[in-house]
Specification:
Distance between the termini: 27 Å
Number of strands: 4
Largest sheet: 2 strands, antiparallel
Strand order of the largest sheet: 1-4
Shape: globular
Radius of gyration: 28 Å
Structural class: mainly alpha
Protein backbone atom coordinates (compact mmCIF):
# COMPACT_ATOMS: atom_id res chain seq x y z
CA UNK A 1 0.00 0.00 0.00
CA UNK A 2 2.81 2.37 0.92
CA UNK A 3 4.65 1.53 -2.31
CA UNK A 4 1.52 2.29 -4.35
CA UNK A 5 1.15 5.63 -2.54
CA UNK A 6 4.80 6.55 -3.11
CA UNK A 7 4.53 5.63 -6.80
CA UNK A 8 1.40 7.76 -7.22
CA UNK A 9 3.06 10.70 -5.46
CA UNK A 10 6.12 10.30 -7.67
CA UNK A 11 3.97 10.24 -10.79
CA UNK A 12 2.05 13.33 -9.61
CA UNK A 13 5.30 15.23 -9.00
CA UNK A 14 6.63 14.24 -12.43
CA UNK A 15 3.41 15.37 -14.12
CA UNK A 16 3.46 18.67 -12.21
CA UNK A 17 7.10 19.34 -13.13
CA UNK A 18 6.42 18.45 -16.75
CA UNK A 19 3.39 20.72 -17.02
CA UNK A 20 4.12 23.57 -14.58
CA UNK A 21 7.82 23.32 -13.77
CA UNK A 22 8.89 26.20 -16.00
CA UNK A 23 6.03 28.40 -14.81
CA UNK A 24 6.92 27.73 -11.17
CA UNK A 25 10.56 28.57 -11.82
CA UNK A 26 9.58 31.81 -13.57
CA UNK A 27 7.34 32.93 -10.69
CA UNK A 28 10.06 32.09 -8.17
CA UNK A 29 12.53 34.02 -10.35
CA UNK A 30 10.35 37.17 -10.21
CA UNK A 31 10.05 36.90 -6.41
CA UNK A 32 13.80 36.22 -6.04
CA UNK A 33 14.60 39.18 -8.29
CA UNK A 34 12.44 41.52 -6.18
CA UNK A 35 14.04 40.34 -2.91
CA UNK A 36 17.55 40.52 -4.35
CA UNK A 37 16.97 43.98 -5.84
CA UNK A 38 15.66 45.51 -2.60
CA UNK A 39 18.44 43.83 -0.61
CA UNK A 40 21.20 45.22 -2.83
CA UNK A 41 19.78 48.78 -2.80
CA UNK A 42 21.47 49.37 0.55
CA UNK A 43 24.92 48.72 -0.99
CA UNK A 44 24.63 51.81 -3.25
CA UNK A 45 26.25 50.13 -6.25
CA UNK A 46 27.93 52.22 -8.92
CA UNK A 47 26.45 52.61 -12.40
CA UNK A 48 29.05 50.28 -13.89
CA UNK A 49 28.40 47.64 -11.22
CA UNK A 50 24.66 47.79 -11.99
CA UNK A 51 25.41 47.23 -15.70
CA UNK A 52 27.52 44.17 -14.90
CA UNK A 53 24.89 42.86 -12.50
CA UNK A 54 22.07 43.22 -15.06
CA UNK A 55 24.01 41.48 -17.84
CA UNK A 56 22.16 38.09 -17.60
CA UNK A 57 18.86 39.98 -17.85
CA UNK A 58 20.15 41.90 -20.86
CA UNK A 59 20.93 38.57 -22.55
CA UNK A 60 17.33 37.46 -21.95
CA UNK A 61 15.98 40.56 -23.72
CA UNK A 62 18.41 40.09 -26.60
CA UNK A 63 17.32 36.46 -27.08
CA UNK A 64 13.66 37.43 -27.20
CA UNK A 65 14.20 40.39 -29.53
CA UNK A 66 16.32 38.21 -31.83
CA UNK A 67 13.34 35.92 -32.43
CA UNK A 68 10.75 38.64 -33.17
CA UNK A 69 11.60 39.25 -36.84
CA UNK A 70 11.84 35.61 -38.05
CA UNK A 71 8.76 34.66 -36.02
CA UNK A 72 6.54 37.44 -37.40
CA UNK A 73 7.58 37.03 -41.04
CA UNK A 74 7.46 33.23 -41.12
CA UNK A 75 4.21 33.02 -39.13
CA UNK A 76 2.27 35.46 -41.28
CA UNK A 77 3.61 34.24 -44.63
CA UNK A 78 3.11 30.54 -43.94
CA UNK A 79 -0.19 31.06 -42.11
CA UNK A 80 -1.94 33.32 -44.61
CA UNK A 81 -0.65 31.43 -47.66
CA UNK A 82 -2.74 28.40 -46.74
CA UNK A 83 -5.97 30.34 -46.20
CA UNK A 84 -8.76 31.03 -48.62
CA UNK A 85 -9.35 34.69 -49.47
CA UNK A 86 -12.84 34.82 -47.96
CA UNK A 87 -11.77 33.12 -44.73
CA UNK A 88 -8.75 35.38 -44.45
CA UNK A 89 -10.78 38.55 -44.99
CA UNK A 90 -13.40 37.46 -42.48
CA UNK A 91 -10.77 36.65 -39.87
CA UNK A 92 -8.96 39.95 -40.51
CA UNK A 93 -12.13 42.03 -40.14
CA UNK A 94 -13.14 40.20 -36.94
CA UNK A 95 -9.65 40.55 -35.46
CA UNK A 96 -9.26 44.27 -36.12
CA UNK A 97 -12.84 45.01 -35.02
CA UNK A 98 -12.39 43.10 -31.76
CA UNK A 99 -9.07 44.78 -31.04
CA UNK A 100 -10.49 48.28 -31.60
CA UNK A 101 -13.52 47.48 -29.45
CA UNK A 102 -11.51 46.18 -26.46
CA UNK A 103 -9.08 49.11 -26.70
CA UNK A 104 -11.94 51.62 -26.61
CA UNK A 105 -13.53 49.78 -23.67
CA UNK A 106 -10.20 49.95 -21.81
CA UNK A 107 -10.05 53.72 -22.35
CA UNK A 108 -13.61 54.15 -21.05
CA UNK A 109 -12.80 52.08 -17.95
CA UNK A 110 -9.74 54.22 -17.25
CA UNK A 111 -11.68 57.48 -17.67
CA UNK A 112 -14.47 56.35 -15.34
CA UNK A 113 -12.06 55.24 -12.60
CA UNK A 114 -9.88 58.37 -12.73
CA UNK A 115 -13.00 60.59 -12.52
CA UNK A 116 -14.25 58.62 -9.51
CA UNK A 117 -10.96 58.28 -7.58
CA UNK A 118 -9.55 61.72 -8.58
CA UNK A 119 -5.90 60.92 -7.83
CA UNK A 120 -4.54 64.25 -9.10
CA UNK A 121 -6.35 66.65 -6.77
CA UNK A 122 -4.13 65.86 -3.79
CA UNK A 123 -0.90 65.87 -5.78
CA UNK A 124 1.33 68.90 -6.26
CA UNK A 125 3.33 69.40 -9.42
CA UNK A 126 6.79 69.22 -7.89
CA UNK A 127 10.20 68.34 -9.25
CA UNK A 128 12.01 69.16 -12.45
CA UNK A 129 10.26 69.30 -15.77
CA UNK A 130 11.31 69.19 -19.33
CA UNK A 131 12.02 72.45 -21.08
CA UNK A 132 9.05 74.02 -22.79
CA UNK A 133 8.76 73.93 -26.54
CA UNK A 134 6.74 72.75 -29.46
CA UNK A 135 5.69 69.10 -29.44
CA UNK A 136 4.66 66.88 -32.29
CA UNK A 137 1.04 67.35 -33.33
CA UNK A 138 -1.58 64.63 -33.58
CA UNK A 139 -1.64 65.03 -37.38
CA UNK A 140 2.12 64.45 -37.63
CA UNK A 141 1.86 61.42 -35.36
CA UNK A 142 -0.95 59.97 -37.49
CA UNK A 143 1.05 60.55 -40.67
CA UNK A 144 4.07 58.83 -39.06
CA UNK A 145 1.85 55.84 -38.34
CA UNK A 146 0.76 55.63 -41.98
CA UNK A 147 4.36 56.09 -43.19
CA UNK A 148 5.51 53.22 -40.98
CA UNK A 149 2.79 51.01 -42.44
CA UNK A 150 4.52 51.38 -45.83
CA UNK A 151 8.28 51.41 -45.17
CA UNK A 152 10.44 52.81 -47.96
CA UNK A 153 13.22 50.35 -47.19
CA UNK A 154 12.32 46.90 -45.93
CA UNK A 155 15.81 46.16 -44.60
CA UNK A 156 15.83 49.46 -42.71
CA UNK A 157 12.43 48.60 -41.23
CA UNK A 158 14.02 45.71 -39.33
CA UNK A 159 15.88 48.13 -37.06
CA UNK A 160 14.44 51.62 -37.65
CA UNK A 161 11.09 53.33 -37.95
CA UNK A 162 10.13 56.73 -39.33
CA UNK A 163 9.68 59.62 -36.92
CA UNK A 164 9.00 63.33 -37.40
CA UNK A 165 11.31 65.63 -35.45
CA UNK A 166 10.54 69.21 -34.38
CA UNK A 167 13.54 71.53 -34.90
CA UNK A 168 13.61 75.02 -33.26
CA UNK A 169 15.01 77.82 -35.44
CA UNK A 170 16.00 81.03 -33.68
CA UNK A 171 15.64 84.34 -35.51
CA UNK A 172 17.51 87.39 -34.20
CA UNK A 173 15.24 90.45 -34.10
CA UNK A 174 16.13 93.52 -36.13
CA UNK A 175 17.67 96.33 -34.06
CA UNK A 176 15.79 99.56 -34.77
CA UNK A 177 18.42 101.79 -33.08
CA UNK A 178 15.79 103.59 -31.06
CA UNK A 179 15.82 103.48 -27.26
CA UNK A 180 13.08 101.50 -25.60
CA UNK A 181 12.92 103.63 -22.42
CA UNK A 182 13.95 107.16 -21.43
CA UNK A 183 14.66 107.96 -17.77
CA UNK A 184 15.45 111.23 -15.90
CA UNK A 185 18.06 110.34 -13.29
CA UNK A 186 18.84 113.16 -10.74
CA UNK A 187 22.36 113.45 -9.35
CA UNK A 188 24.50 116.08 -7.55
CA UNK A 189 25.46 117.94 -10.75
CA UNK A 190 21.98 117.83 -12.27
CA UNK A 191 19.43 117.97 -9.47
CA UNK A 192 16.60 118.21 -12.01
CA UNK A 193 17.81 115.03 -13.59
CA UNK A 194 19.65 113.98 -16.70
CA UNK A 195 18.41 111.94 -19.61
CA UNK A 196 19.33 108.23 -19.60
CA UNK A 197 18.48 106.10 -22.61
CA UNK A 198 17.86 102.39 -22.00
CA UNK A 199 17.82 99.99 -24.91
CA UNK A 200 16.59 96.42 -24.35
CA UNK A 201 17.33 93.59 -26.71
CA UNK A 202 14.08 91.73 -27.41
CA UNK A 203 14.10 87.94 -27.11
CA UNK A 204 14.75 86.02 -30.31
CA UNK A 205 11.80 84.68 -32.24
CA UNK A 206 11.67 80.88 -32.30
CA UNK A 207 10.05 79.03 -35.17
CA UNK A 208 9.58 75.27 -35.27
CA UNK A 209 10.04 73.21 -38.40
CA UNK A 210 9.51 69.51 -38.97
CA UNK A 211 12.06 67.25 -40.56
CA UNK A 212 12.10 63.52 -41.30
CA UNK A 213 14.05 61.40 -38.85
CA UNK A 214 14.14 57.85 -37.51
CA UNK A 215 14.19 56.08 -34.16
CA UNK A 216 16.24 52.98 -33.38
CA UNK A 217 13.27 50.65 -33.03
CA UNK A 218 12.03 47.86 -35.24
CA UNK A 219 9.15 48.94 -37.50
CA UNK A 220 6.92 46.02 -36.49
CA UNK A 221 3.82 47.49 -38.12
CA UNK A 222 5.47 47.76 -41.55
CA UNK A 223 6.90 44.24 -41.30
CA UNK A 224 3.49 42.83 -40.31
CA UNK A 225 1.73 44.47 -43.27
CA UNK A 226 4.43 43.39 -45.73
CA UNK A 227 4.46 39.81 -44.43
CA UNK A 228 0.66 39.58 -44.48
CA UNK A 229 0.57 40.86 -48.08
CA UNK A 230 3.26 38.37 -49.12
CA UNK A 231 1.38 35.53 -47.44
CA UNK A 232 -1.88 36.31 -49.23
CA UNK A 233 -0.15 36.57 -52.61
CA UNK A 234 1.80 33.34 -52.06
CA UNK A 235 -1.50 31.56 -51.46
CA UNK A 236 -2.85 32.81 -54.80
CA UNK A 237 0.29 31.81 -56.71
CA UNK A 238 -0.44 28.12 -56.24
CA UNK A 239 2.38 25.75 -57.16
CA UNK A 240 4.86 28.55 -57.87
CA UNK A 241 4.60 29.86 -54.31
CA UNK A 242 5.01 26.47 -52.61
CA UNK A 243 8.85 26.60 -52.30
CA UNK A 244 8.82 29.92 -50.45
CA UNK A 245 5.94 28.75 -48.26
CA UNK A 246 7.96 25.64 -47.34
CA UNK A 247 10.92 27.86 -46.43
CA UNK A 248 8.71 29.99 -44.18
CA UNK A 249 7.29 26.89 -42.49
CA UNK A 250 10.79 25.53 -41.86
CA UNK A 251 11.91 28.87 -40.40
CA UNK A 252 8.84 28.94 -38.16
CA UNK A 253 9.50 25.42 -36.87
CA UNK A 254 13.17 26.25 -36.25
CA UNK A 255 12.21 29.38 -34.29
CA UNK A 256 9.81 27.37 -32.12
CA UNK A 257 12.56 24.80 -31.43
CA UNK A 258 14.91 27.62 -30.41
CA UNK A 259 12.21 28.94 -28.08
CA UNK A 260 11.71 25.50 -26.52
CA UNK A 261 15.43 25.33 -25.77
CA UNK A 262 15.81 28.94 -24.63
CA UNK A 263 12.91 28.98 -22.17
CA UNK A 264 15.01 27.16 -19.59
CA UNK A 265 17.36 30.15 -19.44
CA UNK A 266 14.48 32.55 -18.80
CA UNK A 267 14.13 32.02 -14.99
CA UNK A 268 17.83 32.79 -14.51
CA UNK A 269 17.65 35.91 -16.70
CA UNK A 270 14.44 37.11 -15.05
CA UNK A 271 16.14 37.27 -11.64
CA UNK A 272 18.74 39.77 -12.80
CA UNK A 273 16.36 41.64 -15.11
CA UNK A 274 13.92 42.41 -12.28
CA UNK A 275 16.63 43.04 -9.69
CA UNK A 276 18.44 45.43 -12.04
CA UNK A 277 15.30 47.49 -12.58
CA UNK A 278 14.70 47.72 -8.83
CA UNK A 279 18.27 48.95 -8.32
CA UNK A 280 17.69 51.76 -10.82
CA UNK A 281 14.36 53.02 -9.46
CA UNK A 282 13.90 56.00 -7.17
CA UNK A 283 13.06 55.85 -3.48
CA UNK A 284 9.85 53.73 -3.19
CA UNK A 285 8.54 55.68 -0.19
CA UNK A 286 8.79 58.98 -2.08
CA UNK A 287 7.04 57.47 -5.10
CA UNK A 288 4.26 56.15 -2.89
CA UNK A 289 3.60 59.55 -1.33
CA UNK A 290 3.57 61.47 -4.62
CA UNK A 291 2.02 58.97 -7.06
CA UNK A 292 0.39 56.33 -4.86
CA UNK A 293 -3.21 57.13 -5.78
CA UNK A 294 -2.30 57.49 -9.45
CA UNK A 295 -0.64 54.05 -9.45
CA UNK A 296 -3.62 52.51 -7.62
CA UNK A 297 -6.00 54.00 -10.20
CA UNK A 298 -4.05 52.52 -13.13
CA UNK A 299 -3.76 49.13 -11.37
CA UNK A 300 -7.50 49.11 -10.58
CA UNK A 301 -8.30 49.84 -14.22
CA UNK A 302 -5.99 47.06 -15.43
CA UNK A 303 -7.57 44.64 -12.94
CA UNK A 304 -11.12 45.47 -14.03
CA UNK A 305 -10.29 45.27 -17.73
CA UNK A 306 -7.95 42.27 -17.66
CA UNK A 307 -9.58 40.00 -15.08
CA UNK A 308 -13.26 40.96 -15.43
CA UNK A 309 -14.13 42.45 -18.83
CA UNK A 310 -11.80 40.49 -21.14
CA UNK A 311 -12.74 37.11 -19.59
CA UNK A 312 -16.40 38.19 -19.77
CA UNK A 313 -16.06 38.94 -23.50
CA UNK A 314 -14.37 35.55 -23.99
CA UNK A 315 -17.18 33.75 -22.12
CA UNK A 316 -19.96 35.57 -23.99
CA UNK A 317 -18.44 34.91 -27.42
CA UNK A 318 -17.28 31.32 -26.90
CA UNK A 319 -19.32 29.96 -23.94
CA UNK A 320 -16.13 28.48 -22.51
CA UNK A 321 -14.41 28.93 -19.16
CA UNK A 322 -11.97 31.84 -19.66
CA UNK A 323 -9.87 31.09 -16.59
CA UNK A 324 -9.07 27.58 -17.78
CA UNK A 325 -7.82 29.21 -20.97
CA UNK A 326 -5.88 31.88 -19.05
CA UNK A 327 -4.17 29.19 -16.97
CA UNK A 328 -2.34 28.07 -20.07
CA UNK A 329 -1.05 31.64 -20.61
CA UNK A 330 0.59 32.16 -17.23
CA UNK A 331 4.09 31.54 -18.57
CA UNK A 332 3.69 34.27 -21.20
CA UNK A 333 2.25 36.69 -18.62
CA UNK A 334 5.20 36.14 -16.29
CA UNK A 335 7.62 36.85 -19.16
CA UNK A 336 5.61 39.99 -20.01
CA UNK A 337 5.88 41.11 -16.38
CA UNK A 338 9.65 40.63 -16.43
CA UNK A 339 10.45 42.06 -19.88
CA UNK A 340 7.80 44.81 -20.15
CA UNK A 341 7.60 44.21 -23.92
CA UNK A 342 4.69 42.58 -25.74
CA UNK A 343 6.79 42.12 -28.86
CA UNK A 344 9.56 40.37 -26.92
CA UNK A 345 6.93 38.13 -25.27
CA UNK A 346 5.47 37.17 -28.67
CA UNK A 347 7.51 33.92 -29.05
CA UNK A 348 6.44 32.67 -25.61
CA UNK A 349 2.81 33.66 -26.21
CA UNK A 350 2.85 31.71 -29.48
CA UNK A 351 4.27 28.67 -27.67
CA UNK A 352 1.60 28.84 -24.94
CA UNK A 353 -1.26 29.15 -27.44
CA UNK A 354 -0.12 26.22 -29.56
CA UNK A 355 0.86 23.84 -26.76
CA UNK A 356 -1.38 24.74 -23.82
CA UNK A 357 -4.48 26.41 -25.27
CA UNK A 358 -4.65 24.31 -28.46
CA UNK A 359 -5.42 27.27 -30.70
CA UNK A 360 -5.33 26.57 -34.43
CA UNK A 361 -1.84 27.25 -35.78
CA UNK A 362 -3.09 29.36 -38.71
CA UNK A 363 -5.15 31.61 -36.44
CA UNK A 364 -2.36 32.03 -33.89
CA UNK A 365 0.12 32.93 -36.63
CA UNK A 366 -2.13 35.78 -37.80
CA UNK A 367 -3.85 37.09 -34.67
CA UNK A 368 -0.80 37.26 -32.38
CA UNK A 369 1.58 39.30 -34.60
CA UNK A 370 -1.23 41.72 -35.46
CA UNK A 371 -2.22 41.99 -31.81
CA UNK A 372 1.35 42.63 -30.67
CA UNK A 373 1.37 45.56 -33.11
CA UNK A 374 -2.02 47.27 -32.76
CA UNK A 375 -3.72 45.84 -29.64
CA UNK A 376 -2.53 47.85 -26.64
CA UNK A 377 -5.43 47.79 -24.17
CA UNK A 378 -3.24 48.45 -21.13
CA UNK A 379 -1.40 51.30 -22.86
CA UNK A 380 -4.65 52.97 -23.96
CA UNK A 381 -6.10 52.75 -20.43
CA UNK A 382 -2.89 54.16 -18.93
CA UNK A 383 -2.77 57.10 -21.39
CA UNK A 384 -6.35 58.10 -20.61
CA UNK A 385 -5.75 57.92 -16.84
CA UNK A 386 -2.45 59.81 -17.10
CA UNK A 387 -3.94 62.62 -19.21
CA UNK A 388 -6.81 63.26 -16.80
CA UNK A 389 -4.43 62.91 -13.83
CA UNK A 390 -2.21 65.66 -15.25
CA UNK A 391 -5.29 67.82 -15.83
CA UNK A 392 -6.34 67.33 -12.19
CA UNK A 393 -2.83 68.22 -10.95
CA UNK A 394 -3.03 71.51 -12.89
CA UNK A 395 -6.63 72.22 -11.71
CA UNK A 396 -7.77 72.06 -15.32
CA UNK A 397 -11.43 71.16 -15.68
CA UNK A 398 -12.21 68.90 -18.64
CA UNK A 399 -15.65 69.08 -20.24
CA UNK A 400 -17.46 66.16 -21.86
CA UNK A 401 -16.16 67.01 -25.33
CA UNK A 402 -12.57 66.93 -24.12
CA UNK A 403 -13.16 63.56 -22.44
CA UNK A 404 -14.44 62.21 -25.75
CA UNK A 405 -11.36 63.65 -27.46
CA UNK A 406 -9.10 61.91 -24.92
CA UNK A 407 -10.90 58.58 -25.43
CA UNK A 408 -10.58 58.72 -29.23
CA UNK A 409 -7.00 60.01 -29.19
CA UNK A 410 -5.85 57.46 -26.61
CA UNK A 411 -7.37 54.65 -28.67
CA UNK A 412 -5.65 55.86 -31.84
CA UNK A 413 -2.33 56.63 -30.13
CA UNK A 414 -2.12 53.20 -28.50
CA UNK A 415 -2.35 51.58 -31.93
CA UNK A 416 0.79 53.44 -32.94
CA UNK A 417 2.64 52.56 -29.73
CA UNK A 418 5.49 50.17 -30.40
CA UNK A 419 5.52 46.95 -28.38
CA UNK A 420 8.64 48.01 -26.47
CA UNK A 421 9.18 49.10 -22.86
CA UNK A 422 7.68 52.50 -21.99
CA UNK A 423 6.57 53.26 -25.55
CA UNK A 424 3.38 54.74 -24.09
CA UNK A 425 5.32 57.78 -22.85
CA UNK A 426 6.04 58.72 -26.46
CA UNK A 427 2.42 58.56 -27.60
CA UNK A 428 1.33 60.23 -24.35
CA UNK A 429 2.38 63.57 -25.87
CA UNK A 430 -0.28 63.17 -28.57
CA UNK A 431 -3.05 62.67 -26.02
CA UNK A 432 -1.97 65.67 -23.92
CA UNK A 433 -1.64 68.01 -26.88
CA UNK A 434 -5.10 67.04 -28.18
CA UNK A 435 -6.78 68.76 -25.19
CA UNK A 436 -4.21 71.53 -24.63
CA UNK A 437 -2.46 70.04 -21.59
CA UNK A 438 1.27 70.76 -21.05
CA UNK A 439 3.42 67.98 -22.49
CA UNK A 440 6.18 68.86 -19.98
CA UNK A 441 4.09 67.32 -17.19
CA UNK A 442 4.87 63.83 -18.48
CA UNK A 443 7.84 64.00 -16.11
CA UNK A 444 5.37 63.83 -13.21
CA UNK A 445 4.64 60.17 -13.96
CA UNK A 446 7.97 59.00 -15.40
CA UNK A 447 9.25 57.82 -12.01
CA UNK A 448 6.51 55.22 -11.57
CA UNK A 449 5.97 54.40 -15.23
CA UNK A 450 8.44 51.49 -15.36
CA UNK A 451 6.43 49.63 -12.69
CA UNK A 452 3.03 50.23 -14.29
CA UNK A 453 4.44 49.43 -17.73
CA UNK A 454 5.03 45.83 -16.67
CA UNK A 455 1.46 45.28 -15.58
CA UNK A 456 -0.11 46.94 -18.60
CA UNK A 457 2.13 44.76 -20.82
CA UNK A 458 0.62 41.72 -19.09
CA UNK A 459 -2.85 42.99 -20.01
CA UNK A 460 -1.73 43.60 -23.61
CA UNK A 461 -0.44 40.03 -23.89
CA UNK A 462 -3.56 38.62 -22.21
CA UNK A 463 -5.79 40.56 -24.63
CA UNK A 464 -3.87 39.23 -27.65
CA UNK A 465 -4.12 35.64 -26.45
CA UNK A 466 -7.83 35.83 -25.55
CA UNK A 467 -8.49 37.37 -28.97
CA UNK A 468 -6.82 34.37 -30.61
CA UNK A 469 -9.14 32.04 -28.70
CA UNK A 470 -12.22 34.08 -29.61
CA UNK A 471 -11.31 34.35 -33.30
CA UNK A 472 -10.49 30.64 -33.35
CA UNK A 473 -13.99 29.87 -32.04
CA UNK A 474 -15.79 32.27 -34.38
CA UNK A 475 -13.85 31.07 -37.43
CA UNK A 476 -13.80 27.38 -36.55
CA UNK A 477 -15.90 26.49 -39.64
CA UNK A 478 -13.37 28.18 -41.91
CA UNK A 479 -10.46 26.20 -40.42
CA UNK A 480 -11.48 22.56 -39.97
CA UNK A 481 -9.04 20.37 -38.00
CA UNK A 482 -6.42 18.43 -39.90
CA UNK A 483 -7.79 15.09 -41.09
CA UNK A 484 -4.50 13.36 -40.47
CA UNK A 485 -4.51 14.54 -36.90
CA UNK A 486 -8.10 13.33 -36.50
CA UNK A 487 -7.13 9.87 -37.78
CA UNK A 488 -4.20 9.76 -35.37
CA UNK A 489 -6.48 10.72 -32.48
CA UNK A 490 -8.99 8.04 -33.48
CA UNK A 491 -6.24 5.43 -33.64
CA UNK A 492 -4.91 6.54 -30.26
CA UNK A 493 -8.36 6.27 -28.66
CA UNK A 494 -8.77 2.72 -30.06
CA UNK A 495 -5.41 1.70 -28.61
CA UNK A 496 -6.36 3.15 -25.21
CA UNK A 497 -9.63 1.20 -25.20
CA UNK A 498 -7.84 -2.02 -26.18
CA UNK A 499 -5.35 -1.52 -23.36
CA UNK A 500 -8.19 -0.79 -20.90
CA UNK A 501 -9.93 -4.06 -21.72
CA UNK A 502 -6.63 -6.01 -21.87
CA UNK A 503 -7.19 -6.91 -25.51
Amino acid sequence: MASIFSVSVREYVKDYIRQNGLLTLSVLAVITGCVLGFTLRDLDLSTQAKIYFSFPGELLMRILKMLILPLITSSLMSGLSSMESKACCRMGVLTVTYYLWTTFVAVVVGIILVLIIKPGYGTHAEGSRLGGGQVITSADALLDLVRNMIPSNLIEATFQQYKTDIIPIMKTPVNTGRPNFVYLMPDEENPKGRTVLLELTPPPDIEYKTRPSSSQQMNVLGIVIFSATMGLLLGKMGERGVPLVNVCQCINECVMKIINAAVWYFPFGIIFLVAGKILDMSDPSTLGKKLGWYGMTVMAGLFVHGLILLPFFYFILTWKNPFTYIRGLLQAMVIALATSSSSATLPITMKCLLENCRVDRQIARFVLPVGATINMDGTALYEAVAAIFIAQVNDYELDFGQLVTISITATAASIGAAGIPQAGLVTMVIVLSSVGLPADDITLIVAIDWILDRFRTMINVLGDALAAGIIGHLCRKDFPPDRTMCKCNDLLSVLVMMHAFNL
